[in-house]
Specification:
Distance between the termini: 50 Å
Strand content: 15-25%
Largest sheet: 4 strands, mixed
Helix content: 25-40%
Order of helices and strands: EEHEHEHEHEE
Number of strands: 7
Strand order of the largest sheet: 1-5-6-7
């Protein structure tokens, strides 16, 4: 029996191109934010006694299953121990926390991920770093991944496998 003439052929899958989608490595847990501004007297002054009382009354269970970033959205000067106290309360519930903004957390998350990546698995391969993500992958992740892969990959492109922007191409070796 002959094959149907309308069979779709996935040329991208047959091309040998490796696709790396940073969005696939976005944190699986939702990210929640705690703004220290909300704990300050007149959104400016941290009063230790009042701060500790607010923390004691807080329902920490609302953050279970989430990554919590602790930051300050205004120009108030916050002592380091304030971040530490909140982090300790969250840790008591088994909750992961990060001192900084969501953007700073994502930068650190991707930096750690890329540092652990075995770039040698991409040796002599054509790699497309997938773009057009629906999640807020920071530009620093794309730059770090490019730097990590460049010593190994034959070429690096950005975008979708069917429409890419060339980023790097290893020069061909001249035969003698």
């Amino acid at each position: 029996m002959s094959e149907p003439q309308n069979e779709l052929i996935n040329r991208v899958a047959n091309s040998g191109i490796e696709v790396f989608n940073l969005e696939d490595h976005y944190p699986a847990q939702p990210i929640a934010e705690i703004d220290l501004k909300d704990f300050l007297f007149k959104e400016l002054i941290l009063k230790e006694k009042d701060f500790r009382a607010q923390l004691k009354e807080m329902d920490w269970s609302q953050y279970i299953g989430k990554i919590v970033v602790i930051y300050i959205s205004n120009d108030a000067i916050i002592p380091v121990w304030a971040y530490m106290l909140i982090s300790a309360k969250l840790a008591d519930q088994g909750i992961v926390s990060f001192a900084g903004t969501t953007q700073e957390y994502l930068h650190a998350h991707y930096k750690a991920l890329i540092s652990k990546l075995d770039a040698e698995t991409y040796a002599e391969k054509r790699v497309v770093i997938k773009g057009c993500s629906h999640k807020p992958v920071p530009p620093s992740a794309y730059a770090a991944l490019t730097a990590k892969l460049q010593p190994f990959a034959q070429s690096i492109m950005y975008g979708e496998p069917c429409s890419t922007v060339p980023i790097f191409k290893r020069p061909r070796k001249l035969s003698k």
